[in-house]
Amino acid sequence: MKKRALLSVSDKSKLVPFAKGLIDLGYELISTGGTLKALRDGGLKALAVSEVTGSDEILDGRVKSLHPIIHAGLLARRDDDSHTEQLKARGIHYIDIVVVNLYPFKETIQKEGVSEAEAIENIDIGGPTMLRSAAKNFRDVTVVVDPSDYDEVLKQLNNGASFDFRKTLAAKVFRHTAHYDGLIAQYFIEQTKLENPETLSLTYERQEVLRYGENPHQQAAFYKAPNVKGASLANCKQLNGKALSYNNIQDANAALEIVLEFPEKPAAVAVKHMNPCGVGMGDTIEAAFSKAYAGDPISIFGGIVALNREVNEATAKQLKEIFLEIVIAPSFSEGALAILTEKPNLRLLETDMERHSSDKKKVVSVLGGLLIQDRDEGMVTEDMLTVATDRKPTEAELESLLFAWKVVKHVKSNAIVVAKGDQTVGVGAGQMNRVGAAQIAFDQAKDQATDAVLASDAFFPMPDTVENAAKAGIKAIIQPGGSKRDQDSIDACNKLGIAMVMTAMRHFKH
Ligand SMILES: NC(=O)c1ncn([C@@H]2O[C@H](COP(=O)(O)O)[C@@H](O)[C@H]2O)c1NC=O
Fold first, then answer.
1. 374 found inside a domain
2. What would the pLDDT profile of 448-462 be if each residue is shown by its tens digit?
3. In angstroms, how far is CA 289 from the centroid of its own chain?
4. Is 356 a catalytic residue?
5. Where are the beta strands (DSSP E) in 45-188?
6. Ligand 1 pocket by C-beta < 6 Å: which residues?
7. Strand 27-31 relative to strand 423-428: parallel, antiparallel, unpaired?
8. Active-site residue flag, 136
9. What's the CATH code of the domain at 308?
10. 393 and 335, same structural domain?
């Protein structure tokens, strides 16, 4: 009896030559409606599934291959006499190869304005069922889910297809159906607006295997969201330079997230080790970059720069003078590209500058688990501020305070940012106490701290930071408030002539 291959595919590319290869290897083909037509149109002979099962395809294709004759043919153990007897008694043939790819659920839900009914119709039932039956029985059945494997499968079948090869294909199937179901589960989590589901099936697609992780002895890869859109390292175009490393992706992402805070004006952000070392806004992108650079001309060395407007020649000339790892921007003018591509190792990335609405959650792993939370999209506007001190901040101080507040949100806690106008002049990041973070910021700002403003990501438990700020020359402070001892800091401000506003919103970043 001839060996049988069952083909039922949505993606019909490369189908006919592959099926021809199977016929040449002596297989008899069985197929579902559309696939059968494609095969016959390609001049190949194939049986309809309905001829094998004796049941027509019904319910507009909702039931076509879901039949015991198909699944017994796939699941029967060839080394089990009782299985063989049962098939014989019912006149059922073994099916030796299954070639299935699924209804395009992902592509369907990504379409603009797609209805729930259309999405549901694109949930494949018969396909995953066949794939799972065949993959479970990989000992005897070859299962193919990915058209890019067709050539290799023919080659291997020609040599008898080893157990290990069939196992590898089966393992791929289980990843594939898990991903497919993960997308469906995620779709319904969104449809039902469910927060914190009882089980979590995050599903991502490999974008790239990285040379190594944070350090050369660590393996690493970059996975992207299946629906990646908008500002993202997984959705950018690299115009120059070497492949991105693990640290590059983290740092560039940090820079991107900060620059997205300032859509209203040209802005530039320089990042080192995921903290901003210089942030500036200006009337032009070159002015913004000059300020970001001046914020800390030492730390920017080897850093990453994100800009929210096209990089023009004037900016490119400035960027070229510094050793940078990456420049990320919405676009680069031709002239700018000509200047920057003179540095072959400098990575130039173009990305959208708008955060996509689906990018809502942040996930981090801990030993034995993971934590998931909303991204910190907290935003403070002038009308939300409470002036706590006798002196109100001036209009210019207020603007600068709100600028510093947006920056401090992105600095690792304990975080202090000192800013002058729309430029950072000192950043104290990731310290185990707030006084230390402030001291780092003052030391870096030096005499630029005079008449500058200060932002603190969380409240002051004691008045010491205020006292030190006054010594450094700070004139206004923005902080969440909420300490039992807020009054001590307020009293210190009043005594030292500092204006202080409270946001009632904290921005810890661990
Ligand atoms: N319902 C079924 O019995 C069934 N059997 C196979 N399919 C899918 O139908 C598609 C192929 O259909 P056609 O050969 O008619 O173009 C494949 O994506 C396959 O996964 C089915 N469709 C969905 O559930």
1. no
2. 999 999 999 999 999
3. 27
4. no
5. 47-48, 97-101, 142-144
6. 8-10, 32-35, 61-66, 100-103, 124-127
7. unpaired
8. yes
9. 3.40.140.20
10. no
